[in-house]
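Teaching note: in complex prediction, the entire set of molecules is handled at once rather than each chain in isolation. The prompt given to students was simply: 'Predict the structure of this complex.' The entities are:
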Amino acid sequence: MRKGTYPILLGLWLSALMLLAAPLAAQAADASAKAPPRVVVQMADGTPDKQGLLLANVNNLINHYGQGKVTVEVVALGPGLSLLYKDNPLSPRIRELASRGVHFKACENTMKAQGKKLSDLNPVSEPVPSGIAYIVDRQAAGWLYYRP
Amino acid sequence: MRKGTYPILLGLWLSALMLLAAPLAAQAADASAKAPPRVVVQMADGTPDKQGLLLANVNNLINHYGQGKVTVEVVALGPGLSLLYKDNPLSPRIRELASRGVHFKACENTMKAQGKKLSDLNPVSEPVPSGIAYIVDRQAAGWLYYRP
Amino acid sequence: MRKGTYPILLGLWLSALMLLAAPLAAQAADASAKAPPRVVVQMADGTPDKQGLLLANVNNLINHYGQGKVTVEVVALGPGLSLLYKDNPLSPRIRELASRGVHFKACENTMKAQGKKLSDLNPVSEPVPSGIAYIVDRQAAGWLYYRP
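The expected output is the structure of the full assembly:
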């Protein structure tokens, strides 16, 4: 080949590579939509009916995607913190969901307002400083939001 | 021109093209924000007041954007499934919204739990296996979420 | 250096630059997730308990991120419009939050339905044509959604 041919070939190769770059970048930015869904579920209600419904919802969600194929966190705040009270009759179902990988977050602002310590709550409870800020942060990080 | 000039020109052209690639890719990834909005609306309440309000909300949404310029799906689940019961007094308004392009999805998990068959529901109803998973999937696909 | 060397160096430089382009583009598309969060909060309930809880939530949100490091808008619609009635006992707390940068939007569709003029509402109120469309538009523009 002639001396000037190599740079031209290099240019063509670069050109082809670049045509791939734009869609790849778009795909990277869109990746969260294709990964297993991560869902932050809000528990803000204090009635047994609504709390039972939330646990049924979460259970359906895991059955639908398959265990390990969806990430679910329940954030209990305001009147919904009672979901995580030690003496809540739903505790066995909460423990079962926890054993299937569901995380249960307790809002510390609410704990303070209701005079509850971590030792008053279901042992699966994980404290977070602010329930609403936690939900907002999760959404900002690409999590999906569900409010039963 | 001299023999070595062409590869340099090619290189400059590639360089210019590449400067365009990054913003274009970002734009592509952001495209969903500019398209007509797609909204998944959750109906989880069983009271006539809240169900009437939801239909008014959806009606306002379509009037605001203009028919055909917004896509709306209502997902009825839990106590909210009663929205789609055949004998719900709101049925005429539901049929009217359906005629304007709104889709009404019925959660099959809830249908099972409430002992309802598709033939017990408003003929506009479209069954989905899990209402919550449907809402999550829609969000993952870029739909916006509204919980009245 | 030999005459053919420059185009090759240019090609290598382009190649390196291009390897940077894809992640940069992805980052640009993802930028909203790293900026200070913007949160649209929905007030659709008319009970004093739920309205007080909403204000506490918003207060916690601002305390958590720090004033000026989070943007919060409250959209009052349906029965929730009463939050912005002039005679609502929560008015002092609303004014205080407004002074900390929180915006309060009043749904004009609801105002019409409830026979209220802007002069009947808290002076901080900013009217929007449709509360639900406003919430949907904000989400489409990258805002995060919170429904107490």
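Point out the following to students. The first strand of chain A starts at residue 38 and ends at 43. The mean pLDDT of chain A is 88.
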